[in-house]
Specification:
The chain is mainly α and 426 residues long. Helices cover 82% and strands 0% of the residues.
C-alpha cells in the first residue's frame, strides 16, 4: 500500500495542475468567443484523443514497463501545454491553437492512463481495491476541489499563462517522484508472445465482450459518462452567464468537497458487498441533484446541490471499478482498461459533441426573453442567457434517474451483484 501511496501522491499533484488548466481553458475560450458551443468543442478536444488512444496505451501497458509508460505519458503531455503557452505569448488570436494544444496533451494522457490503472492492480490486493479506488477518486476530486478555486483566484490577478506554467511545474514534480521510487515498484513482465498490435486490441475487446455482465456494466458506465459530460461542459457557461470566473471557481471548489467526503467515506469504511445496489442508488441520487442544479441561480443553493452531486460520484466510480477488477484477469488488465476507457468514455464524446450545439441552438432560444417556453418553464427557472442550459440540466438529471431505475431491474446487473457479494464473503 505504501508504494501505491507514493504513485498516488505524484498523480495528485499532476491532477491539481491539469485541473487548473482545464478550468482556465474553459474560461478563456468562453471569454474569447462568448459561445457555449466553443467551450464544448474545447472540452471535446481535451478528451477525445485520450479516449481514442486508450486502447493503444492498454496494449503498450501489457507489452512494456508500466512504470516507464507513466513517466513518458506525463513528460510528453507538456508539449500540448507549451503550444498553448507559446501561441498566447506570441499574440496568436483565436481558439484554434488552444484546441491543438489540449488535443496533443490529451493524446499522451490517453497513452498513460491504462498503465496507471493496471499498475494499481499490480500493487493492491482484492481487499484493497475499494480503498485504492476511493483514493483515486480523492485525487480526481482535486480537479474540482482545489484546482478551480486556485485557478479562479489566479485569473483575477493574472491570466492563463501563469496557470499553464504552474501545470508544467506540477508535471515535472510528478515525473521526478515516480522516477525516485521506480526501483521499488514491482515490474510486471510483459507478455511473452507479442502478436500483431491490432490483434491485441481485439483481444482486449474480447475479454470484455465474452462476459455479458461486464458488458452490461460498461454500457451503464457509458451512460453515466454521457450525463456527467453534459453537466461538466455546461456548468461553466451557465454560471458565467450571471457570475464571474472567481465565483465559478469558488462554487466548483466548495461544492466538490462532496467528492472528497464521499471518497473519504469509501476509503475508511470496508465495503462488504452490495456494490451493484450502491451503484444504482448513487446513480439515481446523482441525477436528482443534477436536475436541481438547473432550478436556481442562488449561489448558496448551487453549492449545496453541486456538493451532493459530487458526493455520490465516488460511490458510482468505486463500485464500478471494483466490479470490473474482480471480473477481469490481471494479465490482460492493461488491454482491458484501454478498451473500458474508450467504451465508457464514448459517452463523454457524445456529450461534448452535442451539448454545446443543443444549448446554443435549441435550449437557449427556448428560454430567451421571447422564447417559446418563456411564459411557462421560464416563470419557474427564469429566462435569458444561461437559463436554457439550466433547463437542459434539469431534463438530463431526470433522465439519469429513469435510466438508473431501468438498469436496476436488469437480470444481468442483479446477477453480477450476487456473484460479487459471494466473492467478498468468502
Amino acid at each position: 500500500m505504501k508504494k501505491f501511496m507514493v504513485i498516488w501522491a505524484g498523480e495528485l499533484i499532476s491532477m491539481i495542475g491539469s485541473g487548473m488548466t482545464a478550468f482556465a481553458v474553459a474560461v478563456y475560450v468562453y471569454q474569447l468567443s462568448g459561445s457555449a458551443a466553443a467551450v464544448s468543442l474545447a472540452t471535446l478536444c481535451a478528451y477525445l484523443p485520450a479516449i481514442l488512444f486508450n486502447p493503444i496505451g492498454g496494449v503498450l501497458a501489457d507489452r512494456y514497463d508500466r512504470r516507464l509508460m507513466m513517466i513518458l505519458g506525463d513528460s510528453l503531455s507538456i508539449i500540448g501545454l507549451l503550444i498553448i503557452l507559446i501561441s498566447i505569448q506570441t499574440g496568436i488570436v483565436g481558439i484554434f491553437p488552444i484546441l491543438i494544444g489540449v488535443a496533443i496533451n490529451s493524446i499522451f494522457i490517453g497513452l498513460l492512463e491504462p498503465a496507471y490503472k493496471a499498475t494499481i492492480t499490480d500493487l493492491l490486493t482484492e481487499e484493497q481495491y475499494a480503498k485504492g479506488s476511493a483514493l483515486l477518486q480523492m485525487a480526481g476530486a482535486s480537479k474540482y476541489l482545489i484546482s478551480p478555486f486556485v485557478a479562479g483566484l489566479l485569473l483575477s490577478i493574472a491570466d492563463i499563462r501563469l496557470i499553464l506554467i504552474l501545470d508544467i511545474a506540477t508535471i515535472f514534480i510528478t515525473v521526478i517522484t515516480i522516477q525516485l521510487v521506480r526501483k521499488n515498484i514491482p515490474y510486471v513482465k510483459p507478455i511473452k508472445k507479442q502478436r500483431h498490435f491490432l490483434h491485441e486490441i481485439k483481444e482486449g475487446f474480447k475479454v470484455l465482450s465474452f462476459n455479458k455482465t461486464v458488458s452490461q456494466l460498461i454500457f451503464l458506465m457509458a451512460c453515466v459518462c454521457f450525463f456527467v459530460g453534459i453537466i461538466q461542459t455546461m456548468i461553466a457557461p451557465m454560471i458565467l452567464a450571471f457570475a464571474n470566473a472567481k465565483t465559478l471557481g469558488t462554487i466548483e471548489s466548495v461544492s466538490a468537497v462532496g467528492m472528497l467526503i464521499g471518497s473519504i467515506i469509501i476509503s475508511s469504511v470496508k465495503m462488504k458487498g452490495g456494490y451493484v445496489k450502491t451503484l444504482i442508488l448513487s446513480f439515481m441520487t446523482t441525477g436528482l441533484f443534477m436536475a436541481l442544479v438547473g432550478t436556481t441561480t442562488n449561489v448558496l443553493l448551487l453549492i449545496g446541490y453541486c456538493f451532493m452531486f459530487f458526493l455520490t460520484l465516488p460511490f458510482i466510480n468505486t463500485c464500478a471499478d471494483v466490479l470490473l477488477r474482480m471480473n477481469i484477469p490481471n494479465d490482460v488488465q492493461g488491454r482491458a482498461w484501454g478498451m473500458i476507457s474508450i467504451l465508457t468514455q464514448a459517452g463523454y464524446v457524445v456529450a461534448y459533441s452535442i451539448s454545446g450545439l443543443l444549448a446554443e441552438f435549441l435550449f437557449e432560444p427556448l428560454l430567451g426573453k421571447e422564447g417559446v417556453l418563456a411564459s411557462t418553464v421560464g416563470q419557474w427557472i427564469g429566462t435569458g442567457q444561461g437559463r436554457g442550459i439550466a433547463f437542459m440540466l434539469i431534463i438530463t438529471g431526470l433522465t439519469m434517474v429513469i435510466c438508473a431505475c431501468l438498469f436496476g431491474f436488469k437480470k444481468t446487473i442483479k446477477k453480477m451483484g450476487s456473484m460479487s457479494d459471494e466473492v467478498v464473503t468468502r
